[in-house]
Write a structure and sequence with these properties.
Length: 162
């Protein structure tokens, strides 16, 4: 159960990262040169990654982090038919929602690897996020490297609460 939860977390990170990249393409706010936060630590004993996480904040490349009310969304980690799945929905105020669908694996105690697809202007784009996570008191924190087909990789962090 712990491995599936961690794997599910990885997918979550990937989906969120892809949605963030898509949502931020039109951002005109300059970023400060402070890197995004980094997380590790894995799960508390007996905890599970499965569940619905509401977006608290996300960071792409550098701080400041973004979050409600301008950016909202959620990530759902689940397990069905022997597969850990990830669904992320990100809404950038004034734009249509972006959804990322995929799967994740959990290769090490606090590692996560998300693979999925986001639709950009109706076209499917592959997304991959290898990273690390920490789940503490119903708050999921993920950091990693976002790789989107046709774009340069970005550092990413995401915080969600259930």
């Amino acid at each position: 159960m712990r491995r599936r939860a961690a794997v599910h977390m990885t997918w979550l990170l990937g989906a969120v990262a892809a949605a963030i990249v898509v949502a931020c393409k039109s951002s005109t706010t300059p970023h400060q040169p402070t890197p995004c936060p980094s997380y590790s630590g894995g799960l508390s004993q007996g905890d599970s990654l499965y569940g619905l996480y509401q977006l608290v904040s996300y960071c792409l490349d550098t701080l400041p982090a973004y979050g409600p009310p301008k950016i909202s969304g959620h990530v759902t980690l689940s397990h069905a038919m022997a597969v850990d799945s990830f669904v992320a929905v990100i809404v950038n105020q004034g734009q249509p929602p972006e959804s990322i669908l995929g799967t994740y694996t959990h290769p090490l105690p606090d590692s996560i690897h998300v693979t999925g697809v986001v639709k950009v202007s109706g076209f499917p784009v592959s997304v991959e996020v290898p990273g690390r996570f920490m789940l503490q008191q119903n708050t999921l924190s993920v950091s990693g490297r976002l790789a989107v087909t046709g774009a340069s990789p970005h550092s990413l962090s995401f915080v969600g609460a259930r």
